[in-house]
């Protein structure tokens, strides 16, 4: 959402929050002790949510490891093998000498396991996944779900706590882990042994998280469910997008945003943040479970024409910038909102300040011209560049000052690369390169500073690199625009209020991508070198030539943070940077996603997370199966993995 927030969002958010109060979503929401929307109080009369009844089978013990003593009664141990999908387990019997009841079978390894299919059958009830559904006389449906309780935190979710920055709190983490989990009788839809598999459900933990929602978070979740019911289901069917997917998007949004964002004046912004998250998941066909991210909750649901239709619906909603709320039929929210807004929304959409639109187009034209100029100077020989920059510095009345900064940044990176290429460090030329890169920091919010931080990392000057990266973080705000979009009305209004020139506006509010050319080969990450020389013709819409490599600034910021903290041995900071990288890659709208995936793979391999790196490469190949650096990285991954295994042996 950065750089694209219409001015009317705050006013509409207040009115939407008030309209939802009128349909029963006030701040005083009761806490019930059943499962589903009824228990979470995240439903309204118009949503007609199901009543979920969970029945735990207490006479069966489920263990995660083999006990040292004999277990009395019927007991099973949770097992998973190479063919068991993440988030699922098989229940292997531990009572080998006793007569086993029905519903047992042998898996592909010859182990006696408990079948999940038809584990519990209820007469006159319709089977839906793990639930048995029955329509009551009132028109509401009741879902009866048999389950078995795991008293301890499941092993497959053991890394969940390590991936957390600030949400949820440590107190809630402890409480959630103490509740354990459930096993429900349903297998993975694409697994050949689905009839033998049981899904891990952390319903208690999810209910605890939902109970901690503030009023805005509750309302955001409910609006998403209304959008699903009104816009998605009529076009994509009931199974394409579920309330659980919506809830998961809220969890991830809370984990990646500051808590002060979730206020009534930002309700619409929060809804659209979750919609963008869902859109990103649909685009890559991967919805990560909040507790076990390796589990793809889109498997068997979002694929083929359903995926295409769902993506089209979400894109259309995001293009409307909130106007779709006026047509929400659930509980008459759209009509209530229209009445509350009266003519404000229409007037705000149609009203533009004098010169704002033309100013925005001028800034986009300038940033595109900057990109072309960067390319021109990068393709010149080093001696010609030095002479050219000297002329610019002497004749700054004819060359825009902002372009001098970009030329300086490109020249500094080129000069540093030339010095490092010779093996013998030329300190005088490196000092000149540092001076030029420092001057390039005045180019825009990010790109010049990121090149300077990368230069410090190459020099093993981690203190200065960390300092520059901290400054970039400090200068980032929601007003920052990327180079290809017209800045927001709010950002342009700020430009008018502060009487900023176009050049100064670019310095303060525009984040350009980081460009590396062949002449910068000794100052750039290896993954970008591979992309430059191996990814030919991969994107015809890419404005830059194949002899360069581009990376989105926000992702590159987290990548450099990871490298800086990795070299300094700051494990917690390193993991935070890695999590931020994964968030930006999968849940934001990147222009150069292939570059980001390549860099993310390198970091995962560097950290020894070979399976995670493999999954990222598979996603990259799914998005683009030709002219993709991932094909080469797969070979490097296999080589490193074998080397790691041999070293352990």
Automatic annotation (TrEMBL):
Residues annotated as domain Mab-21-like nucleotidyltransferase: 127-209
Gene3D superfamilies, per database record: 1.10.1410.40
Pfam families recorded: Mab-21, Mab-21_C
Domain Mab-21-like HhH/H2TH-like residue range list: 219-300
Annotated TM spans: none
Family per record: Belongs to the mab-21 family.
Protein name (database record): Mab-21-like HhH/H2TH-like domain-containing protein
Biological source species: Sinanodonta woodiana (Chinese pond mussel)
